[in-house]
Amino acid sequence: MATAAGLVLTLTIGQATADRAQWMGEGRFGIMVHYLIGPQGETPEERTAAFNATVNGFDLDGFMAQVESMGADWLIFTIGQNTNYYCSPNAYLDARAPGHTSERDLLLEIARACEERGIRLIAYLPSETEAPAADLKQAFGWNPGDQSEFQRRYTQFVAEYGERLGDLMDGWWFDGCYTWDVFPNSTYDWPLWFEAARAGNPDRIVCFNDGAFCIGNVAPVTPLEDYHAGEVHFLWDGRVALDHERPPVTWMPDGPFIDGVRVHALLPIYSTFEGGRPYVYSDWQLFKWVDDFRAAGGAVTLNLPVDDAGHIGDEAVAQVVRLRDHLGG
């Protein structure tokens, strides 16, 4: 029906059959940061050196102190996205296209630090390589005409991380699982992907992002997922916007599952997923939305800005600390 807040969409929620992501529903909230380095340099060697210098300057202690202060139950951290570089070594890729991973194993360091603090770690990677450089495309076998070889190779890249981190990695958040022509998600070899994603930890939770809520995709990509990727671009009148109209179609869950997949929303605060000005909400707006989403059994992750040294924006941290206190410390 039409309201002052635009169309309001309701959806019948199904019951999960295997809820690996139960801990998300039982937790308070998680945080995500997009730590992505696009190094400068005239040559590949210069760019690799600049990349390593930046990753070596990541202040792990300071970063984890901020994460811990916010009371987050989980952290989603990017290994890499469309910059040609990954902040953790990978034996599979390093043997085929050296110079694209860091010497420092930042992912492993963060995983160990999270374990020490009782925080679960979810790693982020794209599920495609449309944007990266030619040598990465070649190494992974990227072929818009037939992505079967790409899937075979790239899942080995994914599995290397999972096997090495084992129980230190609790989940994956895979991006780029779109309906586009270069690699439509209808052609994904799901058993191959899930086997690779759970290498080293059969309880690892997995999701694939097709744009999700921000483009009106309320249903998960596949019922094999453990939790919804849940990408949100902004809130409207305390609800999730499903498009970019003003007013937009809006949505909120009425239960903890969609097609057996755990409901989860990923909302940027003091940041944006679409360019332009960051989205900032008052404490009342943010806390009310988190309360309502969690009351339905959904899980919430807040995306926060981070700089090259690993420092999360102070205003964002302060608001999430207040959210922690609002939810009971």
What would your notes on this structure say?
This protein has one domain (2-327): TIM Barrel, CATH 3.20.20. 32% of the residues lie in helices and 16% in strands. It is built from 10 helices and 14 strands. The protein has helices at residues 22-26, 44-56, 60-70, 91-94, 106-117, 134-140, 148-165, 190-197, 283-295, 314-327, and strands at residues 2-3, 6-9, 30-33, 74-78, 120-126, 171-175, 205-208, 235-236, 239-241, 250-251, 257-258, 261-262, 264-268, 299-304. Helix 3 packs parallel to helix 10, helix 7 (148-165) runs parallel beside helix 8 (190-197) and helix 9 (283-295) packs across helix 10 (314-327). The radius of gyration is 19 Å and the shape is globular. Residues 1-17 have low confidence and may be disordered.
Compact overview of the structure:
With 329 residues, this protein is an alpha/beta fold. Helix content is 32%, strand content 16%.
Provide the fold topology.
Blueprint: E1 2-3, E2 6-9, H1 22-26, E3 30-33, H2 44-56, H3 60-70, E4 74-78, H4 91-94, H5 106-117, E5 120-126, H6 134-140, H7 148-165, E6 171-175, H8 190-197, E7 205-208, E8 235-236, E9 239-241, E10 250-251, E11 257-258, E12 261-262, E13 264-268, H9 283-295, E14 299-304, H10 314-327
Parallel strand pairs: 2-10, 3-4, 3-14, 4-5, 5-6, 6-7, 13-14
Antiparallel strand pairs: 1-2, 8-9, 9-10, 11-12
Helix pairs in contact: 3-10, 7-8, 9-10
